[in-house]
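Incident review: delayed structure delivery

Summary: a single-chain prediction request sat in the queue longer than the usual turnaround. Root cause was a stuck worker, restarted by the on-call engineer. No data loss occurred. The affected request and its eventual output are reproduced below so the record is complete for anyone auditing the incident later.

Affected input:
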Amino acid sequence: MATVLDSVRALFAPNNTFTIDAENPADVVARETLLDRVMGADRRKKSSEKIRRNRVPAEGLALVARDSHGHVIGTVRLWNIEAGISPDGQALEALLLGPLAVDCAHEGKGIGGALMRAAIAEAHKREHGAVLLVGDAAYYERFGFFADKTRHLVMPGPFQRERFLALELKAGWLEGAAGMIVASGRKLA
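Output delivered after worker restart:
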């Protein structure tokens, strides 16, 4: 049976320059090296990183892009969070996306977009309600992320309000949501 990742591979890598695949344990060193190179040493000081620290990505939502030799050239992960509380006082489950990174030598090939589309499709398939992120609005709006969905939510620590964006995978999921974003996923063993 074809999976969402199989469909993404066929759609976004027709000339075999890259493929989108599930991250595996052998990818850890390559992913961390890529993130350090692309995002710099200060990446671990960001509010989003604090939420991810000592947590495991959401089930099935750690993806990599591989070149034709199988090397990791891009990465994206999504994390379980509580996006404040709903109007009825319940913790609101959602996902936090990030980091998204592509090796500088492979920029402009559509890898970042393919990773985003694959991550969103997989999150939707797994019936998540919303995805939040902190990033460049001009880039992420083309995937349906907007700041108005997070207007009553806050990140721990400093963040730029105009860069705090969300995409509802289920209509109205974030309606009335308010409060602090907190980690809710499994902790590292």
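Verification: The chain has five helices and nine strands.
Action items: add queue-age alerting; document worker restart procedure.
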